[in-house]
Amino acid sequence: LVEEEADKDTSEDGGSYESLRSLATSMRTYGDLDSALKLLQRCLEMRRARFGEEHVGMASVYNDMGIVLNDMGKHDKAMQMHEKALQINTAKHGSQQHPDTADTYSNIAATHLKKGDDIKALKMYNKSLKMKLATLGEQH
Fold this sequence. Notes:
The protein is mainly α. About 80% of the residues lie in helices and about 0% in strands. It contains seven helices and no strands. Helix 2 (about 15-30) packs antiparallel against helix 3, helix 4 packs antiparallel against helix 5 (about 75-95) and helix 4 packs parallel to helix 6 (about 100-115). The chain is globular.
């Protein structure tokens, strides 16, 4: 079923994109990381075909792929995905603080932590927290 869904031509259907992304999240939850990554790669292709590489929607897929790659122990590849997401988010939001950018910093921190670099992780977590507090407030 996963391979059938990932292989469908759904480039014009935003609902299919969301369904594939949700299925990828489920596959990750159940530990089927290879299937999750394959579905997310399909999501990435769909977003790229519909909106282009620099669209802010690409950042969320890159972040999701980074999380799965991190779970797979592929921390350097995970970092590359999170850095692409950060590049897109900062290009979209500029120097403004934004919750999406804060989430990406948090993902980068988690990758640093899994790589054993606690100092870099702490710096990124602090950066993420400050940005979230500035954009969402303390009560969120």
